[in-house]
Amino acid sequence: MAIELKDVEHLAGLARIAVSDSEKELLRHDLEEILAYVSQVTKVTAELGAPEAGLPEIALATSGELRNVMREDGEPHAGGVFTEDILKQAPAREGNRISVKKIL
C-alpha cells in the first residue's frame, strides 16, 4: 500500500507533532514497511484459519493456559490492626481519626 506525503502530514496533525519535510519522507517509508509487515501477518493468520475467539489456532496451542493473575478480593488483615500505629504518626487526632484543619 502506497502512503502519500499528505497521509503523513495528516497523521502528524492528529498526533500534534511537527514533522520536517525530510522527516516526512522517512516516516512515509517506515509506514509503508509497517503496513507491509501487518499485511504478511494478516495473510498468515488467514492461512492458519482463526477460530471464533479471533486468535490463530497455533497461537492458542503455544501460548499456554489463559488465567487471571489478579489476587482474590478479601481482607488482607483484620480491621483496625494498624490504626494505632498510623494515628501515632499524625500531628493531631480526635479519637480514632486524624484531625485536619478545616479548609472550606
CA(first)-CA(last) distance: 61 Å
Strand order of the largest sheet: 1-2
Low-confidence stretches: none
Q: Radius of gyration, Cα only, in angstroms?
A: 28 Å
- How many beta-strand segments? 2
- Approximate shape: elongated
What about the largest sheet? 2 strands, antiparallel
Helix content: 40-55%
Nearest-integer average pLDDT = 81
How are the elements arranged and paired?
Layout: H1 5-15, H2 21-48, H3 57-63, H4 83-89, E1 93-94, E2 97-98
Antiparallel strand pairs: 1-2
Helix pairs in contact: 1-2
Protein architecture, described:
The chain has 104 residues and is mainly alpha-helical. It has a domain at 5-63. Helices cover 51% and strands 4% of the residues. It has 4 helices and 2 strands. Helix 1 crosses helix 2. The relative contact order is 0.07. The mean pLDDT is 81. This is Aspartyl/glutamyl-tRNA(Asn/Gln) amidotransferase subunit C.
